[in-house]
What we know:
alpha+beta; 5-stranded antiparallel sheet; 5-stranded mixed sheet; 14 strands; 48% helix
Amino acid sequence: MESTWLVLVCLALGLAVGAGFVTLLYAAERHGRQAAEVVNPAVPDGIDQVLDALESAGVVLDPSNNVIKASPGALSLGLVFNRQLVHPELVDLVGQVRRSGETITEDLELARGPFGEASMHFRVRLATLGTRYVLLLADDHTEAVRLDEVRRDFVANISHELKTPIAAVGLLAEALDQAADEPVQVRRFANRLTSESRRLARLTQEIIELSRLQAQEALALPELVSVDAIVADAVDQNRVVADAAKITIAVGKKTRAYVYGDEQLLVMAVNNLVANAVAYSAEGSRIGVGVRRNSGAVEITVTDQGVGIPEVDLDRVFERFFRVDQARARNTGGTGLGLAIVKHVVQNHGGDIRVWSQLGHGSTFTIRIPEAPVTGPNALPTTTALAATGDTTP
């Protein structure tokens, strides 16, 4: 009888211990779920789908300013890192929305990264989402702002550049009228007038060329062009000026390389590089022009022993109207558009241009353009293409 009671007591004790253990497990699970909800609060219904559908960068923040949902755009633009907003300007706006409960729309300029001076421009809109959350939407206007700045700078620069030769032409014409009875003065003013009119015509022509290059149809009908012929033509256009300054232009060996493009534009681009090298080189120096094929690209390199370019200006030499040496550029007749034209020509041909320079040691400009096959299914008919370039030896 005693053994029966002992069994029953042990069974009751086991049930009590088991029930207590189950109760502890349930309490622990509920506590863990509550903690997870605090750390990872659920996004309100439908917000995931809305953010994924928006083109804007979208972020949802909880009461502790933890990011509980961020669209791919917010991540790619660097607005969110490690579940936090990166920029303190945005955090301040979130705080304002929480305090006022009103929607805020502002234009902000934010740093692009932790170092460097590059920035991004955003139109941001913040609003409360329910009673606990804040929704932040950001539209990237960086490119629009950049284009607007380029447009304004271009108008300001072109107004300034045209004003000088136009004023000079007017003054010289007036001086000619007053010196009508002095043949020597008339001849001197006439020469100056011719020089200024040529400069004005060249500036106008380069502006037209630059505008044409920025049009999408600039290379509507590309042809197979010999790179050796391009280089030879560009160098020939500068021989007279180089010989007058006793500057030697050395051309490397032929490569028989071909590219698809506009021969006239490519000759103009290389000509601008060679002309710059001549203009900024000392008398008796040497300029090298070479072509080589490299991993599916054709590289055209122009190297001089001139004055060089300061490192701080290397990133700006391809800007419109930018001159490293303002006084010397004007004395050599430069318009400040030559390298901008070269850049656009190269970009329209699917290539790029690079520059290396050191003050007092000269500069090297390298054009890289995709090489065109002269045989195979992607090439133009060989006989026609080679005849067009004047070369019959593929």
